[in-house]
Design brief:
single chain; alpha/beta; 339 residues
């Protein structure tokens, strides 16, 4: 990749729509928080943690992900983790982020829902004050847990609904189809929340159909396997459904053979509203800038392709129409300056 294109990608105004904040916990901060909170973790060094980041599948990743999250205990822990992510995102040209958080990962081990919220909101406020980077929160239900547990989490969220933009569905996909959570998603919709769900990452295209038809999602997280179903692909393109694609994650979790085989360019050619995101960057070897650069180099994306991906990120966001228009105008100005 030329230095000019790399610089262009860094400066390209963009939104990140698929980021698990717990997945941005770098080994260095993990160790610092473990020491601060007196928590034993199953790793002797930062190097040992990084060596463990070799996954055969999604479940292998989740096992170490949940172990790492155990060091998050206080409001300050969640704030520091969020600030560390936003600092990196701002350096990569992110001007708006809609971040996932997994409250059940924390409440199930005795950390109060309110502690998680106050810490993350403090980090979000710091990012806006420091970088002008706006953000929204999306509460994710862990799909390997029960629908009843998801309803309990939604009840815990009640006092904070004015600070939560939507709900999502993550964790182990295979064996936990979207239909399992249809009622809780309907309840969330009734409360005015937007809806997203992981589907078509490891799960089959049928999971995407379920997410669309039974959950009524506003945005599709991953969605790669939709390409196996031409009718579904056409539907996604026709309706303008946003796909939050995570190239380096797809490769790391062995859902795509290599970055050279990634379908991001095919998605654009098929008219899909695809975006590029980092997923769990501390674990998958790259924040959003690395994902853009890797995809551009491997799939020959040009500046217009990259601008389309950035444009899609704003169009697929949960910002107001007026806010989206401001970001699109800023993007247009950037492109005019790099004609």
């Amino acid at each position: 990749m030329t230095a000019d294109l790399a610089t262009f990608i860094t400066g390209l105004p963009k939104a990140e729509l698929h980021l698990h904040i717990e997945g941005s916990l770098e080994p260095e901060l993990m160790f610092a928080l473990a020491e601060r909170n007196g928590i034993a973790i199953p790793f002797a060094s930062v190097e040992e943690v990084r060596a463990a980041y070799s996954f055969a599948n999604l479940q292998d990743f989740l096992d170490i992900y949940y172990a790492g999250a155990s060091v998050l205990v206080t409001e300050a822990d969640f704030r520091d983790m969020a600030i560390a992510y936003f600092d990196r995102a701002a350096a990569d040209g992110v001007v708006h982020a809609e971040i996932f958080f997994d409250p059940q990962t924390h409440t199930d081990r005795g950390v109060a829902f309110d502690t998680v919220m106050r810490g993350l909101l403090a980090g979000m406020a710091a990012a806006e004050a420091t970088h002008g980077l706006t953000s929204k929160l999306i509460l994710c239900f862990l799909r390997h847990l029960s629908e009843e547990a998801a309803f309990a989490t939604l009840r815990q969220a009640e006092p904070w609904l004015d600070r939560i933009a939507g709900v999502g569905l993550d964790s182990s996909e295979v064996g936990h189809p979207p239909e399992k959570f249809a009622r809780v998603f309907a309840a969330a919709r009734a409360k005015g929340l937007r809806l997203v769900a992981h589907a078509g990452e490891e799960g089959p295209p049928d999971y995407v159909h379920q997410a669309l038809d039974l959950l009524g999602i506003d945005r599709l997280d991953h969605g790669n396997r939709s390409l196996e179903d031409p009718v579904l692909t056409a539907r996604l393109a026709r309706t303008g459904m946003t796909l939050t694609v995570c190239p380096l994650s797809n490769v790391k979790l062995c859902n795509v053979a290599s970055i050279d085989a990634h379908p991001i360019d095919r998605m654009l050619k098929l008219g899909l509203r695809a975006t590029i995101n980092s997923d769990d960057p501390a674990y998958f070897g790259g924040y959003i800038g690395e994902n853009f650069r890797a995809a551009a180099e491997a799939r020959g994306l040009d500046r217009d392709d990259l601008a389309t991906l950035a444009r899609n990120s704003f169009l697929g966001s949960f910002l107001s129409d007026d806010e989206v228009a401001v970001h699109l105008a800023r993007l247009d100005t950037y492109m005019e300056g790099h004609a």
